[in-house]
Amino acid sequence: MSPTSTSKTNQDYAQDYWYFIAAVVGLFLVIRVVNFIQNWSRLRRSKTHSVQFPTKPTTRFWQIWATVTAVIREISYPQLYVPIRYLSWMTPPPMGRILVLIVYWSVIIYMMAQDVIRESYSKEQIGYRNAWVTVTQVPLIYLLASKTNIIALITGTSYERLNWLHRWVARTMFITATVHGAYFWAYWVESDIVNMELSMMPIVVYGIGAWFILLWMTVSSFKPFRSMAYEFFLIQHILSAVMFLWTVYVHVPKKARHNVWFSIAALCFDRAFRLGLLFWQNIKLRPVRSDCEGGKRFGHQTQLSPVGDTITVLTIKDVHFKWRAGQHLYLWLPKVSPFEVHPYTIASPHQMPETCICNSIQLVVRSHSGFSKRLNQFAKKQKESGKKESLTALVVGPYGNPPRWDIFETLVLISASTGASFTLPILESVLCSKAASCTKRVDFMLAAKQGEEVGFYRERLHEAMEQAKSVGIELSVHIAVTGNGQLEALAAVSFPPSSASSTTHEKKVLEEEVRAAANTEGIIQPLMGASRIRLSDAGSELHMHYLGMRPDVSKFITGAVEATGGETGVVVCGGPSLVAKVRTSVAKLSDERGVHKGTGAQGISLFAEEYAF
Fold it and tell me: CA-to-CA distance for 256 and 253, rounded, in angstroms?
């Protein structure tokens, strides 16, 4: 086979690769459109009260669509968790992501191997084939890494939910690059021209340099290294990505450089858009000042409130962009850390109408190390000194494209610790919505090791229960404090004054029973396979239950699903172990009930948000 025809074949495979990517993106766009029509139909039926359960499929097409969706969910949700300390980072992705990777790897292997395993192909020609397979993947990596992500925009997801694919495509590209270099090196050794290639062909040296940069980026992207010093990882990763593009540009021939230019365009557009958003959201030429003194010309007035040693609550004023429950923004506090920008979930519900100029949002930051620890220490120093000094914060966002939460008849919201910053705004947005909603019941669970982590959310949960009564939504709240002696610490937190339904006497009774449950076992009764504190009549009326040990998440979900007549939405936000447990439980429950397979059981949709580096 002539070199010209080989080159033409390689370019054709590279072109077919992007046809494949476009077809997959187009498929997800079709799925998005169909789901949008289904959600619109549900909300319309709910508004007209034409059926008892608006989330049930009513036509043959929607029944088939629901069955296919249920089968895909059951296959894609399960996840195996590795509980071994220091090895939990080796937990494999959920089954759905594994299947996506298998499809992607099949395409890559086909491109690498098709027609090359025959005598007419030399080692050098196989190396060229893998060179094209490698360089054609470069733009996809930079597209998936962008926060201004065209793929996410089309498919209806968000950049952070595609980041896992960015890492795995990069690892796949490292393998194809290694195969590319290995075949060339074997050919040079066989022909005894290694020294000549290195001395006379500068592009070879740049190619080796690009491979070592890619090796470093691949190794450093594994979770143990990212967790050591995430800020350092982020800075060096960006610099390495820029250096990699330069070395690849010098290494590849002109006919392949369009891949590099495509990647540069994606990188520059993303950075330019984010910079423009930073200026637009944080610089006001004519700030509007009001009695609450929220308006600033530069940045946003921010107040810090430490909650013990583990949590810092930030209140950011004068924010005039809309957001939805489940979205996040990037926070920059120059006085605390001049060179660090971090993402945090917006812990308050959507923007309410008729608010003043200092319309505020809240962020809840749990102290780990680095920036979050320094932030908590800074807030405690301010509190101890008696200063009420406010900081200037710069924000960029909101980011994320969470689904509609009001299209499910029952919502099951599960969170661990500050994961409630994700689930609680969802609850509040459903309760405060004035539009038509399918939601009739919400089951809320919050688990934490320390009582102080729960106290901040408990006051808002009491307000949510009062709001649920007024709008006719059944709300049940379960709070689990798993640390030794921490349940008693929770009782010491003052009750919210907005809970008008509880008298002073009832509050004292609740506090006494929580303290008693922390020290005795006489009033603990089984619930959800774990334990539940039997509260007073006032507590039972409010449907707020306290647990003194780790709850059985699977039974908690089962109870909610069995009590509903329509589709259930399960939302979980927490660490890898909790997310994996919920994923597997939902898949198992869906299979056992025969969802949309003629049993009459309705669908169970899962949305998982995992906080991890």
Answer: 6
- Which residue blocks in 323-451 are alpha helix, DSSP H? 371-385, 420-432
Cα–Cα distance, 14 to 108 (Å, whole number): 10
Count CA atoms within 13 Å of residue 79 on its CB side.
24
Nearest to 487 by CA among 457, 511, 523, 515: 515
Which pLDDT value is given to residue 74?
93
Please report which confidence band the pLDDT of residue 25 belongs to, taking 50, 70 and 90 as the band edges. Answer: very high
pLDDT computed for residue 144 by the predictor: 94
Please write the tens of the pLDDT for every residue from 33-62. 999 999 999 888 888 877 788 888 888 999
pLDDT in tens, 365-415: 887 777 878 888 888 787 777 766 678 888 988 898 999 998 999 999 999
Those residues with Cβ within 8 angstroms of residue 439's Cβ, 6 or more apart along the chain or in another chain: 405, 406, 408, 409, 410, 411, 430, 473
Closest residue by Cα to residue 121 from 236, 6, 43:
6
Return the residue matching tokens 């661990």. Answer: 416
Contact 266, 139 (CB under 8 A): yes
C-alpha–C-alpha distance, residues 561 and 307, integer Å = 35
Other beta carbons less than 10 A from residue 308's beta carbon: 16
What SS3 state is found at 3? helix
Topology classification of domain 410-610: Rossmann fold (3.40.50)
Start-to-end CA span in the chain (Å)? 49
The Cα 8–Cα 1 span in angstroms is: 11
Amino acid 200 reads M
Between strands 410-416 and 441-448, the pairing is parallel
Whether the per-residue pLDDT at 119 is higher than 80: the answer is no
Q: What is the pTM of this model?
A: 0.86
User: What Cα–Cα distance (Å) separates residue 23 from each residue in 19, 26, 139, 155?
Assistant: 6, 5, 16, 12
CA distances from 421 to 188, 252, 305, 457, 573 (A): 58, 47, 15, 8, 9
Q: If one looks up domain 300-399 in CATH, what number appears?
A: 2.40.30.10
Residue 109 — pLDDT band, cuts 50, 70, 90?
very high
Contacting residues for 370 by C-beta, under 8 A, at least 6 apart: 229, 230, 231, 340
Question: What residue type is assigned to position 418 of the chain?
Answer: T
What gap in Å lies between CA 209 and CA 181, rounded to an integer? 11
| DSSP three-state, residue 490 | helix
Report the mean per-residue pLDDT for the chain.
Answer: 82
Bridge partners of 445, per DSSP, are 414, 478
What are the pLDDT digits (tens) for 148-176? 889 999 999 999 899 999 999 999 999 99
Rounded CA separation 446/574 (Å)? 10
Asked if pLDDT for residue 315 goes beyond 60, the answer is yes
- Do 228 and 234 form a contact (C-beta atoms < 8 A)? no
